[in-house]
Amino acid sequence: MIDFGFDKIALIGAVALIVIGPEKLPRVARTVGHLIGKAQRYVADVKAEVNRSIELDELKKMKGEFEDAARGVEQSVNEQIHQTTSDLNNAWNDAEPAPFSGGLHDGLTPVPEYKHPKKHWRLRRSAMPQWYKQRHGVRSKALSGAARVSRFRPPRSST
Questions:
Q1: From CA 101, how far away is CA 107, in angstroms rounded?
Q2: Do the beta carbons of residue 30 and residue 38 sit within 8 Å?
Q3: 66-79: pLDDT as tens digits
Q4: Mean pLDDT across 78-99
Q5: How many domains does the chain have?
Q6: Where is the composition biased (Basic residues) (predicted)?
Q7: 101 Cβ neighbours under 8 A, 6+ residues apart
Q8: Would you say residue 66 lies in a domain?
Q9: In a domain, 101, yes or no
Q10: pLDDT digits over 132-143, tens only?
């Protein structure tokens, strides 16, 4: 842009002082300052808009590249799935069906039916009943040391 040094600014100020006059010079300088500020803001806005449009174009380009890469991965995965499925189908069709043994494992010994080792395995069998614990003094709750001392402290005699 235009390069203004101190000497050029002083020369412009002296000419403005002579042409405009000392009474109107402050108001004209203020107006010129406002106009220069508006021009700088406008230029900054234009630069920001250009930068945003450049970044938007770059993002669109990057988005397209990512979409192409995703399509490529999807196609390769689909090809692998199709290949694996066809291999499994071929292996399944090529296998000979085993003759039905009628419930016999090797043809000689019967296969026993599965039976869970414990009939009622969800029920708690070893739990002590609550009435037994209360009758025989089995502690069901843990007491702190201070609570135990206060529980078993002999009562105070009021004398």
A1: 6
A2: no
A3: 999 999 999 999 99
A4: 84
A5: 1
A6: 150-159
A7: 107
A8: yes
A9: no
A10: 877 887 766 777
